[in-house]
Write a structure and sequence with these properties.
The protein has 2 domains: 138 residues, 3-Layer(aba) Sandwich (Aminopeptidase), CATH 3.40.630; 127 residues, Aminopeptidase, CATH 3.40.630.30. It is built from 8 helices and 17 strands. The chain has 309 residues and is an alpha+beta fold. The chain starts with a strand and ends with a strand.
């Protein structure tokens, strides 16, 4: 083992782990005002890095993520379990020396990256599984999106009515946000991110937020703000539609259009997110995502109390 644990990578380092937007310094700078700390598993021989974790620190707890769909340990799938375990032990040691008493990590869904080796390492280190979150994702292939027959009828109805899917330019993001916010408020489903927060995050993560819309005779009737998690994954972040078009279910058309966009862009996974309201599963939303092609993928949240010795 020639690795070193460092809190900052040298210039021109090769990143060999699978990385996600939510763990980057730029995203975390926009996400919250808490202190953040990064640990990298760095190989100085070839100036490369095979693992990384980012934490926010709050009242003696290291949290990854503080306010994001997930955070957790990013790692090279080729990294041995021994080296991955050593990385985790070194991270614990450093956190403890900084006065951290608890560690919480929320891992990405299994569909993003196989988590079995990491899960076993964490369990061997006495991490407890605090929760098991259900995501729904659509793997992108060269084939058309497969939906249940009811949703296919809705899609045909949208197409027959002349609805048009559009990938919108960045300068439309504010207008799309306003429309989504208005529609969500009508449905008593307010957005979790205010306009100022979105604007700040957009400034620091210029290519991360992508607006898409469905139009009827140049009228925006459904939209989403998607997040480019990395080159291979698109997250369907903030969908909503004009309630005047409830009978058409334009979100079905929106997801179908996003799926085709992913095909053209080389995106391998369309993440529909979770279906929780608070901590309780919204069964109707879960069923809808299943019917439009969403496959269940679980993400684990771990927590550990560090020994005071």
């Amino acid at each position: 083992m020639g690795y070193r644990l460092v809190d900052e990578l040298p210039d021109q380092s090769e990143i060999r782990y699978i990385s996600f937007l939510y763990n980057t310094p730029q995203f975390l700078n926009a996400n919250n005002d808490l202190p953040q700390i990064h640990y990298y598993w760095y190989d100085p021989v070839d100036n490369s890095c095979d693992a990384h974790v980012a934490f926010n620190l709050e009242e003696g707890e290291a949290i990854s993520p503080f306010k994001a769909p997930f955070g957790g340990i990013e790692f090279n799938s080729q990294l041995s379990s021994e080296d991955l375990m050593t990385f985790l032990v070194f991270v614990e040691r450093e956190l403890k020396s900084n006065g951290v008493r608890f560690i919480r990590v929320g891992q990405c869904p299994e569909a993003y990256q196989d988590q079995r080796v990491l899960t076993q390492c964490l369990k061997d280190l006495q991490y407890n599984v605090k929760s098991e979150r259900v995501f729904q994702v659509i793997p992108v292939s060269s084939h058309d999106l497969i939906m249940k027959e009811m949703e296919m009828r809705r899609l045909r109805k949208c197409n027959k009515s002349g609805f048009e899917f559009r990938h919108l330019p960045q300068n439309e993001l504010s207008r799309v946000y306003t429309a989504i916010n208005d529609w969500r408020n009508m449905a008593n489903k307010p957005l979790s991110m205010g306009r100022a927060e979105l604007d700040q995050s957009r400034k620091l993560n210029k290519e991360a937020y992508i607006p898409f819309g469905i139009y009827s005779n140049e009228q925006l009737i459904a939209a989403t703000i998607a997040i480019r998690v990395n080159n291979s994954i698109l997250y369907h972040f903030y969908p909503a539609h004009d309630p005047a078009f409830n009978n058409y279910s334009p979100i079905v058309k929106l997801v179908d259009g996003m799926y085709k966009w992913c095909q053209n862009q080389g995106v391998e996974l369309l993440d529909l997110g979770t279906s929780y309201v608070g901590n309780k599963m919204n069964q109707s939303l879960y069923r809808f995502k299943s019917h439009i092609g969403g496959m269940e993928s679980k993400g684990l949240v771990f927590r550990k109390a560090l020994s005071s010795r």
